[in-house]
From TrEMBL, chain A:
Note accompanying the cofactor annotation: Binds 1 zinc ion per subunit.
Major localization listed first in the record, in broad terms: cytoplasm
Record family assignment: In the N-terminal section; belongs to the HesA/MoeB/ThiF family. UBA4 subfamily.
Designated name of the protein: Adenylyltransferase and sulfurtransferase MOCS3
Automatic annotation (TrEMBL), chain B:
Name of the protein: Ubiquitin-related modifier 1 homolog
Family the UniProt entry places it in: Belongs to the URM1 family.
Cross-link (Glycyl lysine isopeptide (Gly-Lys) (interchain with K-? in acceptor proteins)), chain numbering: G99
Organism lineage string: Eukaryota, Viridiplantae, Streptophyta, Embryophyta, Tracheophyta
Keyword Transmembrane: no
Record organism: Dendrobium nobile (Orchid)
């Protein structure tokens, strides 16, 4: 008996040792993989910290013709060289220039692709976002395989696949007043392909204090706008817009939608303007603005005011230095956040007038007589909705308040009990506004669902579509 | 006075989602003239159907709106005092920030 136990015991021990050895090997593998990754990241970081010395590294020891181009460059860019207005000189200017693209999204995608293809010597890409599936309809640089990965990594990989001869610098961080001087200083030209107001003021100011031309594009819905700021004596963003607009006028693609090709069109035109500034050909949009209306296929080019002598940033008596730039509070100035993720949560009504999505699910299960009013716009309601909910958009609530009463009465009649009133929206902000209005207009017991349909999808029904 | 007014960058939402308006605006009775200042108050009362604060601030347009007369920034042609002429095209455009 004892012997058998010992025998079994040593077999167990041997088995245990083998298992631990395997584990050890696996851990060692993981360590060396992580070390390699760390090294690679450090190399990328080091490159990001260096100035963008483009031309010499492109040549990289290749024999150069008397015109300054290598045979490989002559073949690759031959269709550029054949343009009489562009030619060898234009191409060498591109190879010698460095461009920073801020934002690798809908605008930045075509910008970066074209700048890489056309042989800009050094391209920096700055963005802190990761690729999400609902980006791909417009952010054409990113493939499905990169969903969940950093946008700069995805964009740089796409550029490398197109043109391995140029320098690409990955700035996997958000551009902010604290790091912008450092990053922008390494480039000749800046492209604003961001999606928010504080970044637009910040990038324009940075380009003024660092004296860099800025190619600025924007797109929303079915419209786009494009101009060149702080170039050859032209105006900066603040010359045009000394005071920021009210926050209610600042729409985002994640709220208002955008037709994918619209930022694509504007991004292509931004790439064109950047190429013109870099190569020194043609007449840029400095002092003019291109306005694109996709729905009516109309492009309007308007003449803008010149540089303002009173401009806070670039005016003759402006006292705006690198130091004042770094300490300027852009989010405070514009009253809006740089990141879409940092969306402020409204807190308008008391907690007693709110329930969680789980509590709402419980009262459905208890078959509590009630109605659920969904106050999103009608075209949102068509995307997805909680079954049995009634759509009365917030903007129509005042006119249609009698509907609420009749729906409540109907449910009360059918159930023989009084019916309660719940309100839902996409994220739980408009529902509060609705409850606030309802409580002051004859429905004091109205409650809203905290976090809206997003929390319903997250906490109650994982199969509920989010958008 | 026959004018064409265009609203862009989302401002069309304030006037029943119509972008282009062909309008007939009566000039000042005293001098027979029509300035941009006059036109702004006419637009405010005749075209803007909701959220007027999204269009006006005080007696001017709110920050973030460009006013263009015949494709030219109103700052270049006299601002509020710009005198309009028959068949002028006036564009009101809200700056976009998305991307
Ligand atoms: Zn300025």
């Amino acid at each position: 008996m004892d012997c058998k136990i010992v025998g079994n015991g040593s077999a167990d021990i041997i088995h245990e040792i083998e298992k631990l050895k395997l584990d050890k090997k696996e851990i060692e593998n993981r360590i060396s993989k992580l070390e390699a990754q760390l090294k690679a990241d450090e190399a990328v970081q080091m490159k990001a910290n260096q100035a963008c010395s483009s031309y010499d590294s492109i040549l990289d020891g290749h024999a150069v013709s008397s015109n300054g181009l290598t045979p490989g460059m002559i073949y690759r860019y031959s269709r550029h060289l054949l343009l009489p207005d562009f030619g060898v000189e234009g191409q060498i200017n591109l190879a010698k220039s460095s461009i920073l693209v801020v934002g690798a999204g809908g605008l930045g995608s075509p910008v970066v692709l074209y700048l890489a293809s056309c042989g800009i010597g050094c391209i920096g890409i700055v963005d802190s976002d990761i690729v999400e599936l609902n980006n791909l309809h417009r952010q054409i640089i990113h493939p499905e395989a990169y969903v969940g990965h950093a946008k700069v990594k995805s964009a740089a990989a796409a550029c490398r696949a197109i043109n391995s001869s140029i320098n690409l610098v990955e700035h996997n961080q958000a551009l902010q007043a604290s790091n912008a001087l450092d990053i922008v200083s390494k480039y000749d030209i800046v492209v604003d392909a961001t999606d928010n107001l504080p970044s637009r003021y910040m990038i324009s100011d940075c380009c003024v204090v660092m004296n860099k031309p800025l190619i600025s594009g924007a797109a929303l819905g079915l419209e786009g706008q494009l101009t060149v700021y702080h170039h050859k004596g032209g105006p900066c963003y603040r010359c045009l817009f000394p005071t920021p607009p009210p926050t209610a006028a600042c729409q985002r693609c994640s709220d208002s939608g955008v037709l994918g090709v619209v930022p694509g069109v504007i991004g292509c035109l931004q790439a064109l303007e950047a190429i013109k500034v870099a190569s020194g050909i043609g007449e840029t949009l400095s002092g003019r603005m291109l306005i694109f209306d996709a729905l009516s296929s109309r492009i309007r080019i308007v003449k803008l005011r010149g540089r303002s002598l009173q401009c806070f940033a670039c005016g003759d008596h402006a006292d705006f230095t690198q130091q004042s730039f770094q300490s300027f509070d852009y989010e405070g100035f514009t009253q809006s956040p740089m990141s879409d993720k940092a969306r402020p949560k409204l807190s308008l009504i008391s907690d007693s007038a709110r329930i969680t999505s789980r509590e709402y699910k419980d009262l459905i299960d208890r078959q509590e007589p009630h109605i659920l009013v969904d106050v999103r716009p009608a075209h949102h309601f068509k995307i997805t909705a909680i079954p049995e909910s009634i759509n009365i958009p917030l903007s129509a609530l005042e006119d249609q308040i009698s509907l609420v009463d009749s729906y409540l009465k109907e449910v009360a009649k059918d159930s023989g009990k009084s019916a309660s009133l719940y309100v839902v929206c996409r994220r739980g902000n408009d529902s509060q506004r609705a409850v606030d209005f309802l409580s002051k207009n004859g429905f004091p017991l109205a409650k809203d669902i905290i976090g809206g349909l997003e929390s319903w999808a997250q906490d109650v029904d994982p199969s509920f579509p989010i958008y | 006075m026959q004018l064409t007014l265009e609203f862009g960058g989302g401002l069309d939402l304030l006037c029943q989602s119509v972008k282009i308006h062909h309008v007939d605006v009566t000039p000042n009775v005293e001098n027979g003239k029509l300035t941009l200042r006059d036109l702004l108050s006419w637009v405010r009362t005749s075209l803007i159907k909701e959220r007027p604060e999204m269009f006006m601030k005080g007696d001017s347009v709110r920050p973030g709106i460009l006013v263009l007369v015949n494709d030219c920034d109103w700052e270049l042609c006299g601002g509020h005092d710009t005198e309009l002429e028959e068949k002028d095209v006036v564009v009101f455009i809200s700056t976009l920030h998305g991307g």
